[in-house]
UniProtKB/TrEMBL annotation:
Domain Acyclic terpene utilisation N-terminal: 11-140, 156-248
Annotated Pfam families: AtuA (PF07287)
Region described as Disordered: 286-305
Name of protein: Acyclic terpene utilisation N-terminal domain-containing protein
InterPro entries, alphabetized: AtuA_N (IPR010839)
Signal peptide interval: none
Length: 374
């Protein structure tokens, strides 16, 4: 597999980081290996040797299960693997979503990667790894892994945005801060159940307090057992598309291929989650440790879905004017399969009293319009 199928900014970040990591004995865990974590780990190992540093490099293995493509297709056809949204009767898949099942020769599966948990990372740290390269892993939510430095190479480097620092106080309390010399702001402006491969985090009773400038204290999160499954992202070749518009550029007229996406869930017991640790002098024959799936699991319950209790009458706020929603609210969104989740928030108590009464489930559905699907 080509070594460069990874997040391109990672080597440059490591180039600037390895000496200070050696000096301060900082553990580095990076989820920038994309679909070739071994390739990035080998590149990192070479960099460590060139700098003559005493660092052990490892990588997480097992998320890429493309070698099981035929079995995956058979399981989807039989119903053993269902679409991630199949439990929701209000969601209807696009008409071509399952075409790849009937035409494996012309619409082949090209990637099949599962979201791995923290367990292989923890095993690597326990065995002395200093740098661990990950491919497709879930955001680890345990104190053992968060005690390491989790670097994510997605910052807009031209703004010199700081990476956040998490100081763990206890199993459900932590402080979020940053380096003083770098840009960014850590403030309070940042479904009640957050699911990943390791744990279900219940943030119903979360409290966030601003301790000092750029220092926020978070408490009240509860953790519950994870489900026995994890997300599996399947990509297959699509058809072709082309477009044309009235400019002097005609490159978009030429047909281009695209990838189709089929998200599903797979039992963690079907995966081989492992950590491979290189020797100091060679990347040949790394030491492999296979980790077992979670011993205790529980089914995922439905997330709470309700309008704000004891809502305030909107008429009580007085005369109103029409304004863009973004004038008063901030927000962020993230993809979950083919869907998008969105969080909206305001900044004062008065705005919150209005917003929690105004932004009902019906209002959100009205604003999203034809794109709304339960």
């Amino acid at each position: 597999m080509p070594w460069n199928l990874r997040i391109p900014q990672v080597p440059a970040g490591l180039q600037q980081t390895l000496e200070i990591a050696t000096e301060k004995r900082i553990k580095i865990v990076i989820n920038g290996g994309a679909i070739n974590p071994r390739g990035l780990a080998e590149e990192t190992h070479k960099l460590v040797k060139e700098k003559a540093l005493n660092l052990t490099v490892a990588y997480v293995n097992g998320d890429n299960i493309i070698h099981k493509a035929h079995r995956i297709l058979a399981d989807i056809n039989s119903g053993a693997l269902a679409h991630l949204d199949s439990h929701n009767e209000n969601i209807h898949l696009a008409k071509d979503s399952l075409d790849f099942l009937d035409h494996p020769e012309t619409i082949p599966v090209v990637y099949a990667n599962a979201y791995l948990s923290y367990r292989a990372i923890t095993a690597g740290l326990d065995q002395g790894a200093d740098i661990i390269i990950c491919g497709r892993v879930a955001n680890a939510q345990t104190s053992r892994v968060l005690s390491a430095i989790l670097q994510k190479p997605f910052s807009e480097t031209f703004l010199r945005l700081s990476l956040s620092i998490v100081e763990i106080v206890s199993s459900d309390n932590y402080v979020v801060t940053k380096h003083e010399g770098l840009n960014a702001i850590i403030t309070l402006d940042t479904g009640n159940l957050y699911l990943n491969s390791d744990i279900k985090a219940d943030i119903t009773h979360i409290k966030v307090k601003e301790e000092t400038t750029n220092r926020v204290y978070v408490l009240g999160i509860k953790g519950y057992l994870p489900p026995a499954t994890t997300k599996l992202a399947i990509f297959h070749k699509g058809a072709h598309f082309a477009s044309i518009h009235c400019t002097l550029k005609i490159r978009t007229v030429i047909t281009s291929t695209f990838l189709g996406f089929f998200p599903t869930k797979i039992r963690e017991s079907k995966l081989t989650d492992a950590i491979d640790i290189f020797g100091r002098d060679s990347v040949q024959s790394p030491t492999r440790t296979i980790v077992s799936p979670p011993k205790s699991t529980e089914p995922l319950k439905d997330r709470d879905n309700y309008d704000a209790p004891r809502a305030t009458s909107l008429a009580s706020f007085g005369v109103t004017v029409n304004r863009p929603l973004g004038d008063l609210t901030l927000g962020r969104s993230g993809d979950k399969g083919g869907n998008v989740n969105i969080g909206l928030y305001v900044q004062t108590d008065e705005q919150w009293r209005w917003f929690r009464s105004f932004m009902t489930r019906a209002k959100l559905q009205e604003l999203i319009g034809a794109d709304w699907q339960d």
